[in-house]
Amino acid sequence: MAIIIYGTKKAVIGVDETMTYCPSCETDSFADIMVSSIYCHIYFVPVFPISKEVIIVCQQCGLKRYDLPFNARTLSNYIEIKSNFKHPWYTYSILGLIGIIIVSLILS
């Protein structure tokens, strides 16, 4: 009987400053954001990314909002900044390995 170690893990993608609406101040103000990639792993080797989360800290009042989804509902300028925060290449490692194996089987 083998034990399979699996689960999800977070990796920080980047940190930036952006203008966003703060529910505490009830104004648009600058906020610091930290974007994290969440991915599945087997034996601590990344398999594929699942989603992204963001932590937002208002610079005006200090309100901290944790584990919010990284999407247009959370950030008003999502379209402009989404290309700056891509999943790291290593979170696709197992999928890449499977792709290489399939291609080598087809070619041989």
Task: Describe it.
The structure is a single chain. This protein is an alpha+beta fold. It has two helices and four strands, in the order ββββαα. It has helices at about 80, 95-105, and strands spanning about 5-20, 25-40, 45-60, 65-70. Strands 1-2-3-4 form a four-stranded antiparallel beta sheet. The protein is elongated. It starts with 5 loop residues before the first strand and ends with a helix. The mean pLDDT is about 90.
State the main characteristics.
alpha+beta; four-stranded antiparallel beta sheet; 4 strands; 18% helix
Judged by helices, strands and strand pairing, the structural class is: alpha+beta
The poorly predicted ranges are none
Order of helices and strands: EEEEHH
Amount of beta strand: over 45%
* Percent of residues in helices: 10-25%
Overall, the morphology is elongated
Main sheet attributes: strand count, strand direction, barrel closure = 4 strands, antiparallel
Write out the strand line-up for the largest beta sheet, numbering strands in chain order. 1-2-3-4
Report the mean per-residue pLDDT as an integer. Answer: 89
Query: How many helical elements?
Result: 2
Radius of gyration: 18 Å
Number of strands: 4
Terminal residue distance: 34 Å
Short recap of the structure:
By secondary structure, this protein is of the alpha+beta class. It is built from 2 helices and 4 strands, in the order ββββαα.
Topology record:
Blueprint lengths: L5 E17 L4 E16 L2 E14 L5 E6 L8 H4 L11 H15 L1
Antiparallel strand pairs: 1-2, 2-3, 3-4
